[in-house]
Amino acid sequence: LEPESYYTVIEIDPDDRLPDDPVLRNMLHWMVINIPGSTSQFQSIWQTGDEVYHYLGNNATKGEVHRHYLLLFKQMGRIYISTPRGNGIFETRSFFSVRNFSQKYGLGYPVSGLMWLSQGKDQ
Predict the structure, then answer these.
(1) 92-95: long-range contacts at Cβ-Cβ below 8 A with a sequence spacing of 24 or more?
(2) In this structure, are strands 112-119 and 65-74 parallel, antiparallel, or unpaired?
(3) Three-class SS string for the chain?
(4) What is the pLDDT of residues 40-49, one digit of tens each?
(5) Which of 24, 27, 39, 101 has a CA positioned 20 to 30 A from the CA of residue 93?
(6) Pairing of strands 50-53, 65-74
């Protein structure tokens, strides 16, 4: 990371609620903006950046497997979002468009990313 730059982290679950019928597709699980590139490995990004949406845990039910994507974007400078902060409601988290968000705030393509599978357990 470049110490003078700012970054955004977005986590998406494209399979929410059911992988075969993702009625809430592209559920936004987490968003932190304005993360300084100077953040060290010993600091928490939600404390050094601005957490727009708190982390939302795995929504998969028993026997289901969901994909999760964690994307890192380099910002052109600090950004300001008029979206409600905090846990948010499903209406503001579901159908989240990474492409539209990226275009709106001039983020371009992710500079890094990670994908994993999460499996539902007894709830």
Answers:
(1) 92/28, 93/27, 93/28, 93/29, 93/53, 93/56, 94/16, 94/24, 94/25, 94/26, 94/27, 94/28, 95/24, 95/25, 95/26
(2) antiparallel
(3) CCCCCEEEEEEEECCCCECCECCCCCEEEEEEEEEECCCCCCCCHHHHCEEEECCCCCCCCECCEEEEEEEEEECCCCCCCCCCCECCCHHHHCCCCHHHHHHHCCCCCCCEEEEEEEEECCC
(4) 888 888 889 9
(5) 39
(6) unpaired
How far apart, in whole angstroms, are the C-alpha atoms of residue 12 and residue 18?
14
Tokens of 119: 């499996």
Taking CB atoms within 8 Å and a gap of at least 24, the contacts of 32-36 are 32/8, 33/6, 33/8, 33/75, 33/79, 33/81, 34/6, 34/8, 34/75, 34/78, 34/79, 35/6, 35/7, 35/8, 35/9, 36/3, 36/5, 36/6, 36/7
Q: What's the token pair of residue 42?
A: 């010993």
